[in-house]
Amino acid sequence: MDWSPSHPCNSVSSKRRHRSKQSKVQIYRLSRKRLEENVEEDMELMNLKLYLENKSIIEENEKLRKKASLLHQENLALMSEFQKKFPHLDRLSTTLLLLLQKH
After folding, report:
1. pLDDT tens figures, 59-93
2. Backbone angles phi, psi at 48, to 5 degrees
3. Among residues 53, 61, 33, 30, which one has the least CA distance to residue 45?
4. Where are the alpha helices (DSSP H) in 1-103?
5. What pTM was computed for the model?
6. Alpha-carbon 62 to chain mean position
């Protein structure tokens, strides 16, 4: 039996193979597309988590800045009060004396 494209057996077999390859390619494309969509969703979720974490860190940082500012103001007021009580001491001596008193 000679092979010929017009032979019914060869034609059907060829169509099946072509259809099978085409199906595999379509499945591959769909799988790849789903994988890319999943990666995009994962990236979006990760970005959202990082955004919320950064926002939280920024808010905490702002609270700490305000607290540091208040402590600095309190420190300046105490230094001023201390210098009024001991006007004969210069600023460096006052600072050293305050540090020694804390320990």
Report:
1. 999 999 999 999 999 999 998 898 888 887 776 77
2. -65, -45
3. 53
4. 8-85, 91-102
5. 0.50
6. 19
Q: The tokens of 69 are what? A: 């500012």
Which residue do the tokens 């402590």 mark?
A: 71
CA 32 centroid distance within chain: 26
Q: In the numeric block, which tokens belong to residue 41?
A: 């969703």
Q: Is the dihedral of CA 27, 28, 30, 31 positive or negative?
A: positive
Distance CA(13)–CA(34), nearest Å, equals 31
Half-sphere exposure of 68 (CA within 13 A, CB side): 6
Structure tokens at 45: 């979720």
Q: Please name the residue that has the structure tokens 């019914």.
A: 8
